Amino acid sequence: MTTVLDLQRFKAEGRRFAMLTAYDYTTARLLDAAEIPVLLVGDSAGMVMLGHPTTLPITMDELVMLGRAVSRGASNALLVGDLPFLSYQASVEEAVHNGGRLLKEAGMHAVKLEGGGPTAVEATRRLTEAGIPVMGHVGLTPQSVNRLGGFKVQGKDPKVAARILEDARELEAAGAFSIVLEGIPSPLASKITAALAVPTIGIGAGPGCDGQVLVVHDLLGLTTGRKPRFVKAYANLGEQVVEAARRYAAEVAEGVFPDAEHSYSGSLEVVGEANPEVKYGGR
Ligand code: KIV
Question: Which residues span the domain enclosing 246?
Answer without folding.
Answer: 239-281
